[in-house]
């Protein structure tokens, strides 16, 4: 069986969940036709670790926060991302750092270094894809490498690959989505009578919302995802700044109650549509949906994308949009796509 | 570009919609990498027509009901299904006859004849797949032919191929679906205050329900689809008779109103689940769903399947479950799968 050597860039929740799957469930990968061996890990807190013959994942997964890799063979307290990405014996670089949504760094640099070195890249980071997707895809092509990022939109729930592989022969006219679990949860709790601030506090207690919920509530998280969907699936070249964005911060309990009384639900909708002139327009804004809308029934922290197609009308997929293991699964599906690329020489 | 020769078995709504796409939108197939040429058509009413160089679809699509193929070159007023399937120069047999859900005939025989002759088969008929799926798949393998039937579950909405291609590396624990548009429409109208009989009459007016709605309302249509899902996706070997089936005929307006008052919705749920002992159990029955259930928001005649997976939890796809053009698209996606089979030698 083929063994792929991985470099894990960032050793937070998602890459730790992936490492846990690799350690505990090799049969899952064997069923896909390959073995995974982690040969390098870098992390802002832990530093860097390179062991060509394979890192013992039990050891590094057991290390407490505050520890670092310095005492280990091949270890250092410095992250040394550039050196590890360029020079470690990894076939696939797994990028899952904490990355700025404004400039996509440090993930953009990580992806560039890896692809330029002819290494395949899988990532869950929205930033590099939303901001530099076209450049990075070109760089991948130039270097005969695969660049996969299913998790950048809806965590492990298939969206990009689903549209690319399941709608052969259909024309995609647009996409609409509920792409932020926190804001959807908050709107649902407002339907149950909570005020916006109370609902946000509850979402934070449940671990859905960040300490600073601005990106969730204000729509800028969804904006990045809409740019990805527009560019990847509709062939647009939109910068996230070109996506008109309004969050749910101005929605009042009264509005939510009023809508509900009329059989409607407020939802934060991200959408991208191909106009009759072929131009793609994209937006993020709160909207009231009637019960027959395919996104009206999406409750709690669930995410969904509804694809508007010419022959089938709306086809909608819903599922988790976050979660460590769920997002790690996106990386698994990306690695399977890299494997298909390597074996077939073409993207599948 | 490759040209595939098709034999259309049955020339009702679905195959007429396919013929219309082939006539009017060759670019749609060119984008998939092939051309389609219809070299044979058989139909109970029209008889049979074989023209090796390709039938002029405009001519046959314009023929009124009551006419038959007798006057045309290569035409006959007799259906001659067996002869056409076995001997016409078709690469792919497109089976879309009016078929009995009890014994799957005449479709089962059509599929057998075609596969035994080494011809690829695409079909929208539930019967052959639900009743004889295992045998027919074995026959296909034996004859190095492809047998595709995406449309047998949810018309053009991808379900079988979605689960097979999008969930690599996941374990599927079970499936739950709303698999009959008529009964879902009826339950929705009962929520709006109609009685069962009134709602059925309305569904018939809208063309959702057959003149005899027994199979829709009584659950036997869903039962066939559940058997297909259980056998194809969970590896079961269930006969439809082994699926415990209760329809919605006993659901009262009072029950529907009562549930709604409690924030719940009655839905006709078809499901198949792998137990801890590995055994697959399957059923069709009305159930009350709370608003957070992934199928609770499926409204009107829309269908949906929710896949219960080990790493992602529930991932749900919804879309049309009927319609002529929608079902013809299932055949298009099946023909694309046959093309991939021919080019790759393997099922994709």
TrEMBL record, chains A, B:
Pathway: Amino-acid biosynthesis; L-threonine biosynthesis; L-threonine from L-aspartate: step 3/5; Amino-acid biosynthesis; L-methionine biosynthesis via de novo pathway; L-homoserine from L-aspartate: step 3/3. It catalyses: L-homoserine + NAD(+) = L-aspartate 4-semialdehyde + NADH + H(+); L-homoserine + NADP(+) = L-aspartate 4-semialdehyde + NADPH + H(+). L-homoserine binds at residue 210. Residues 158-335 form the Homoserine dehydrogenase catalytic domain. Its cofactor is a metal cation. The active site is at residue 225. Coiled coil: none annotated. One of its GO terms (molecular function) is homoserine dehydrogenase activity. Its EC number is 1.1.1.3. Catalyzes the conversion of L-aspartate-beta-semialdehyde (L-Asa) to L-homoserine (L-Hse), the third step in the biosynthesis of threonine and methionine from aspartate. This is Homoserine dehydrogenase. It comes from Arthrobacter cupressi.
């Amino acid at each position: 069986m083929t063994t792929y050597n991985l470099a894990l860039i960032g050793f937070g929740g998602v890459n730790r969940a992936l490492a846990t799957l690799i350690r505990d469930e090799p049969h899952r990968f064997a069923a896909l036709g390959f073995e995974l061996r982690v040969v390098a890990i870098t992390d802002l807190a832990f530093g860097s670790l390179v062991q060509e013959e394979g890192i013992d994942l039990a050891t590094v997964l057991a290390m407490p926060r505050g520890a670092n890799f310095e005492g280990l063979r091949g270890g250092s307290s410095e992250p040394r991302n550039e050196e590890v990405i360029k020079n470690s014996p990894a076939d696939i670089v797994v990028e899952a750092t904490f990355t700025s949504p404004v400039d996509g760094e440090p993930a953009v640099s990580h992806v560039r270094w890896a692809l330029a070195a002819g290494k395949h890249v899988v990532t869950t980071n929205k930033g590099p894809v939303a901001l530099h997707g076209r450049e990075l895809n070109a760089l991948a092509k130039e270097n005969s490498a695969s660049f996969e990022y299913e998790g950048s939109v809806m965590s492990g729930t298939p969206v990009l690959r689903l549209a690319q592989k399941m709608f052969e022969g259909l024309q995609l006219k647009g996409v609409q989505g509920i792409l932020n679990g926190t804001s959807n949860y908050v709107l649902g709790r407002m339907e149950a009578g909570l005020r916006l601030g109370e609902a946000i506090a509850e979402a934070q207690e449940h671990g859905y919302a960040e300490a600073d919920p601005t990106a969730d509530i204000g729509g800028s998280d969804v904006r990045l995802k809409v740019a990805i969907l527009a560019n990847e699936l509709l062939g647009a070249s939109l910068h996230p700044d070109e996506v008109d964005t309004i969050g749910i911060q101005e929605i009042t309990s009264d509005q939510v109650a009023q809508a509900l009384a009329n059989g409607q639900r407020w939802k934060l909708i991200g959408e991208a549509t191909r106009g009759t002139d072929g131009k793609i327009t994209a937006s993020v804004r709160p909207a009231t949906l009637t019960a027959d809308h395919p996104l009206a029934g999406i409750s709690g922290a669930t995410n969904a994308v509804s694809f508007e197609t010419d022959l089938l009308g709306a086809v909608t997929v819903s599922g988790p949009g976050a979660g460590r293991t769920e997002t790690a699964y996106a990386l698994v599906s990306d690695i399977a796509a890299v494997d298909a690329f390597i074996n077939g020489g073409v993207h599948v």
